[in-house]
Records
---
Amino acid sequence: MMDIKIYNSLTQQEEPLRPLHPNKINLYVCGPTVYDFCHIGNGRTYAAFDVVVRYLRWRGFDVTYVRNITDIDDKIINRARDNQEPCQAVVDRFTAAMHDDFAGLGLLSPQHEPRATEYIPQMIALIEELIQHDYAYMATNGDVYYRVRKCASYGCLSHRDIDQLESGARVDVNVLKDDPLDFVLWKSSKPGEPSWGSPWGEGRPGWHIECSAMSKSLFGDQFDLHGGGKDLIFPHHENEMAQTEAVTNKPMVSIWMHAGFVQMDQIKMSKSLGNFLTIRDALKSCRPEVLRYFCISSHYRSPVMYSADALKQSHSALERLYTALRDLPDAPRLENTDFEKRFIAAMNDDFNTPVAFSVFFELAHEVHRLRSSDLERAAQHGALLKYLGNALGMLEDKPDDFLQGALDSVTINKINALIEMRLAARAQKHWAQSDAIRDELAAMSIVIEDTATGTQWKMQ
Ligand code: AMP
Ligand code: ZN
């Protein structure tokens, strides 16, 4: 079996995937903070890991996928205060919205979706252990901080120099901390904020300790893959690693994976900058699979530029693939082909989806080439295209459904009736009438195409 290689942000090189337990992969991806709708940048990161899960399963691995929910955070508290509603209402509403949006993008559900607030006892236990080992201390106000200088390897994931970090951190001098570099593990709560009892008084956890506690509870001291967007490398993942490894003395994760940003006008799409498009708004103007294609057709580590035009190009690309699959008879897929080998080689090479998709376009080309001379062979190529597409969660629609859009049956009947009227007009050489019907269809964004087997139509 050819090795699957994955780029490890820790070592900054591709490494063979060597499961800690035979044939088993434990993957933890940091989930969203549920205080607003997810944007397509978030969608891209989760779609990238959806491809990882699907491909590894397709190759026979037993993948356990954990994607947590951050349901306690300053942003949630502020949003609840602005809306004058309880934090729980904000969390419930945006968790439900996230599930809808992710289903729209065709994302598989994780096996576990732990919520931070369900793991408070585990977080407290971990913080107590850090204090016992002198990796953490309580400040005078009840906050607990991690002692960064005690962690010899601090900075190794983000490749930052601790002394340079120190000089940057001095700008924000917090008198409660022993050292400006130290980060918070437990925050003493202010009146009116959600809080939990702890050995250090009423308070709530810091963000980083959540993922250390949840991953340790669900996977143990070590697991195979840990992912998120690139902005999580520092400080979030650096801090997670420092926390967990301080108590386990073992490498927490075999391979750290990070997805590149979706950018808009050359800038990272983000809520705080205000340059974002939510998944649900994007899905008002394009089919879900088009957005999924946009998210996964570039390499997951590269940045990807969002524009309306980029979505149109994604639509055209998928249209080419579905057009190839249209009207093919059932046939067994070709086996042991160079196409499949190249698809696997591309995906084994750090999930190189652009190359994998180029194989799909070659297959589509073969289907077109063979269609008139050898329909059976064309159909065998088509079946392989669908099979490989399905491995990435693509090409699962019926070609007609994709090409004809999500139209209601009344509209579809009307289109078919117009096409028949046009054929009748043509048969009687009533060209003006035939052209007028074509124009009427065009006004409905319907393009028709006369082929040897009849007239076909699709949405523009
Ligand atoms: P958040 O809800 O901000 O915690 O983000 C959830 C996930 O989306 C994290 O893994 C982020 O790294 C990722 N993310 C945020 N913005 C973008 C973006 N513009 N492009 C790609 N991923 C992003
Ligand atoms: Zn995390």
---
Amino acid sequence: MAELNLVLLGPPGSGKGTQGERLQEDVRLPYYATGDILRGAVREETELGRTAKGYMDRGDLVPDEVIVGVIGERIDSAEARDGFILDGFPRTTPQAEALDAKLGELGRAVNAVLLIDVSDDEVVRRLGGRRTCAANGHVFHVEFNPPAQEGVCDIDGSELLVRDDDKPDVIRKRLQTYHEKTEPLVRYYDDRGVLRRIAGQATPDDVCEEIRRTLATMRLEQDEAV
Ligand code: AP5
């Protein structure tokens, strides 16, 4: 596996961000989380942020054409030449097709998709207790991953907040959106032979270990196939 073009797939709150941060340290590749990018744009009140805010607050997806452009630019950049980690993209079949087309132009393809599997009940438990740092989006949980000091980020000392879309009615809407629009991608990537399932209900450390083992196995399999 000369390069790693990796997609993290899974319902809201499955731990994509938690594992993405760890993985980034392991593989030293750029990490593009569309939710973080969009929340940054909302904070900075850019045109992208103004477009995205209403959709995000309702638990709907931002239109495909808006988000495809945002990711396309990054994938085409020099820093992503050896690969990337995508978190939260693609989220619809048209987004997956646009990603394939963009990578195809560059003679590349998605070569690993990790589906972090958790139940809807677990999603509700996790998102209800999530706290996110105001400055850099570092993620904690009041019960499962509490910060050393309540309300303060361990990493950069900024304030920990409840995300606007972590309210119970919006969580339910986001889950519904996931099942309708994003779950079909499981089949999409399974058919291409690049999808692996990760048991997301385990502890963050155990999930991380399973991801490491899975990626190591995929590298071996893909190297042997060359
Ligand atoms: P986004 O920010 O991507 O939200 P999401 O996919 O719903 O994912 P989350 O960030 O909520 O959860 P996560 O899986 O990263 O879990 P986390 O690690 O935080 O997107 C937000 C919005 O932006 C969308 O609704 C949409 O409007 C828009 N958008 C984004 N991308 C788009 C796209 N491609 N197209 C269109 N619109 C788009 O963990 C959750 C909690 O659980 C934390 O508190 C954590 O500490 C805890 N936790 C993590 N792992 C474990 C564990 N193993 N055990 C116990 N607790 C754990």
